[in-house]
Design goal:
Keywords: ATP-binding, Nucleotide-binding, Purine biosynthesis. This protein is of the alpha/beta class and 231 residues long. It has helices at residues 12-22, 41-44, 57-65, 79-84, 93-100, 102-111, 125-135, 162-168, 224-230; strands spanning 3-8, 28-35, 48-51, 69-72, 88-89, 119-122, 139-143, 153-156, 174-178, 185-187, 190-192, 198-200, 204-209, 212-217. It has 9 helices and 14 strands. Strands 3-2-1-4-5 form a 5-stranded parallel β-sheet, sandwiched between helices. The longest helix is centred in the first third of the chain and has 11 residues, at 12-22.
Length: 231
């Protein structure tokens, strides 16, 4: 029996999910998105829309009432509300909670033996100075939550910038990590179904301008060794 799909977020990615779901008419009977912008891109692609904030409890409950399965195009969902719902949610609210917090992301990757730059949680200005003494400069100071597309990052290159960087975040929860002077950013997009089956797309190359993605090139212009290592 076809299911009703609910999506938290109706932007560009929500539109793409909507377009893909419409081609799965045997599996998906209806698509509803929750988004604060009237006539959002997903709605323009044919989804029904609930207008509301991503974290609004009443709006999320309303979405759940109209859905058999819920997913998200953005990490801004309310995990406390989602975890209480009697609904199928993929990825789980627990996974979403990790995605929402950069420190939890780093810990998860490190605990699963994936290479990451050295990092610390930051609790005060003095703590930041102490951790930078250990890491050495340059470092990236990051807001743990509600930051994407380069927002929420402050590169510290000299001791004179430490206090300015800390004050910039105005009391937000922070983490700091050793700056990685990488040559290129590449991505592997993978999908896993509820049976545990995994499919991966070819490696792509990302080009940023002012910390915001400007272009993705597929396939990535890298050697076979890099492709093999990334996969």
């Amino acid at each position: 029996m076809a299911k009703r799909l609910g999506i938290i977020g109706g932007g560009q990615l929500g539109m793409m999910i909507t377009e893909a779901a419409k081609n799965l008419s045997d599996a998906i009977s209806e698509i509803t998105v929750l988004d604060p912008t009237d006539n959002c891109p997903a709605a323009q692609a044919g989804a029904k829309q609930i207008i509301g904030d991503f974290k609004d409890e009443d709006a999320i409950v309303k979405l759940a009432e109209q859905s058999d399965i819920i997913t998200y195009e953005i990490e801004s969902g309310n995990t406390d509300v989602l975890s209480k719902l009697n609904a199928e949610i993929e990825p789980s609210p627990t996974t979403l909670g990790i995605i929402q917090d950069k420190l939890l992301q780093k810990k998860f990757l490190s605990e699963n033996e994936l290479p990451v730059s050295q990092f610390y949680e930051i609790t005060s200005l003095d703590d930041l100075r102490e951790k930078i003494n250990d890491l050495g400069l340059p470092v990236l100071l990051k807001a743990r939550r509600d930051a994407y597309d380069g927002r929420g990052n402050f590169k510290i290159t000299s001791p004179d910038e430490i206090e300015k960087a800390y004050q910039h975040f105005d009391g937000k929860s922070l983490m700091v990590e050793k700056f990685v002077n990488f040559k290129m950013e590449v991505s592997v997009i993978a999908a896993r179904n509820t049976k545990g089956e995994i499919a991966a797309y070819p490696l792509v190359e990302n080009i940023h301008e002012n910390n915001i993605l400007k272009m993705t090139i597929a396939p990535a212009r890298v050697s076979d060794d890099v492709i093999s290592n990334a996969g």
